[in-house]
Amino acid sequence: MNAILHLASLGALALIPAVACAATTNTKRCVELEVPVPIVATNQIFDQPRVDSTIDAIDWTVWVSTRTTLPARDRVIKDNPIKDIFKINAQLCVPSDKGPKADILQIATPGLGFDKRYFDAEVQPDEYSYVNAALKKGYSILTYDRLGTGKSQKPNAYDVVQIPTEIEILASLTKIARSGKLISSSKVLSSSRTTVSDFEPSKVVQIGYSFGSFLIQNVLARYPELSDGAVLTALYPNTIPFAQMIDVLHYDHEYPKENDPARFSEYGSGYFVLSNKADLQKLFFQKRSLDPALLTYTEKIKQPETLGEYASEGLSSYLVAEDFKGPVQFFIGEFDNFVCRGDCRGIYDPTEANRIFPHSNATYYLQPNTGHAPGLSKNASAGYEVMLGFLDSHNL
């Protein structure tokens, strides 16, 4: 849904409480946290219209796609230094039995339009929840709501919720987790009858989806010491020219408070959300692997985006991860309508993949009959086996 993915075309494990997460058939031990995440970043203030209504949201969609609208780099008014501590909602889950992978922590970053529930579906969770799949293989996993989504803080949508801020939030959250102080430095939100203590992971693996995968790529380049490997889903270096990519005009947006006043009451100026299930299907799904219950679920959990995210994409790109040497897998739906104009076969660009990951021997995998949301498709569990098998093959 964003220009960056166009560029992609271009110690002992402590006792964690058993709390109420999504209903599953396997034991799931999770704790919900409010993590104070300190960051320093440099955003920009852009010349751009305001969005204070659905009429504004549609007008912005047309404006940003108009051929005479200046590119983002030419609309920068000034730098906007950010030094703040943001409240980020996160969930840490650990396997019931401590095995050899329990001290490997996966950190999962969702994409635009979603919060952490993308990785932990409540519809047939034993089939569709990536959190459940990782736990069954013995991993610990941390999911979180990106800034401006879910239960995380919702600051200024124009000047604060931008890519540089979100990159630094992921890096800072990873540092906190690696330090072994994630729980002790956070506010525990879930009720608990047992002792909650920290654990220090031996390794950290980044799991990304779409926009979240792009954020991870930048973190791996800027902070290579923080991670040991990555699986980047819905991201795929390929040979389609930028000018041929699908743009935002293909999808209708609404002002969140008008789209769903009860659900989106906290969202103010500069936020917008995909309008309805038809737009969600166009962007995220492929009919051959579409479960209608998951389309309904996607509508239920959809999240707003910000003008700041879209504008900052114009100043963002892949960075060369020169000092990152961990394994990387690009995982893409075979018929991703957004990244590949509906067909990802035969267009993988190994030259670009090796340019941005020169020491990772990056590989790719096409998930059959799947669109832009592989984690919400009928064959999600088969895809998870591929992802987790890739990590296991690299001793992660």
UniProtKB/TrEMBL annotation:
Transmembrane segments: none annotated. Residues 131-264 form the AB hydrolase-1 domain. Pfam families: Abhydrolase_1 (PF00561). Keywords: Signal. The keyword Signal applies. Residues 1-22 form the signal peptide. This is AB hydrolase-1 domain-containing protein. It comes from Clonostachys solani.
